[in-house]
TrEMBL record:
It comes from Qipengyuania psychrotolerans. Keywords: Hydrolase, Metal-binding, Metalloprotease, Protease, Zinc. The keyword Zinc applies. This is M67 family metallopeptidase. The keyword ATP-binding does not apply.
Length: 131
């Protein structure tokens, strides 16, 4: 599966990661099917936001409620790796639900996309759109 990602979404994620550095940013990927059209920034409520992230639970509840009410669907989640590693960490693997969600990782000025399956994380190809 190839994702389609809005160039504005990519720019927003990269800018957010830079703005909160050296802390990890995090949030929710929104869209429809394989098309990511928006992000919902969320507060990183983890006790050690320099090394870990935890999306504010209320942001998750609100995003899912909005989706049920006809808004954009929750396609997955994003967070930054201030250490520059562009791949999921062992902690990401331990903490992620195996629910088919898309995971975006912002690192080293770029973004990579992943999906977690039985064999671990698999990289997802993507194309940029100008939506």
């Amino acid at each position: 599966m190839t994702l389609e990602v809005s160039s504005q979404v990519m720019e927003a994620m990269i800018a957010e990661a830079a703005a909160v550095y050296p802390r990890e940013c995090c949030g929710i990927l929104l869209g429809e099917g394989a098309v990511i059209t928006a992000i919902l920034r969320a507060e990183n409520v983890h006790g050690d936001p320099v090394k870990h992230f935890e999306i504010d639970p209320q942001a998750l509840v609100d995003a899912h409620r909005a989706a049920r009410a006809g808004g954009p669907q929750v396609l997955g989640y994003y967070h930054s790796h201030p250490n520059g590693l562009e791949r999921p960490s062992s902690r990401d693997l331990d903490m992620a639900a195996r629910d088919g969600a898309v995971w975006a990782i912002i690192a080293a000025g770029g973004v990579t996309f992943w999906r977690l399956g039985d064999a671990g994380f698999s990289a997802l190809p993507y194309v940029l759109s100008h939506r």
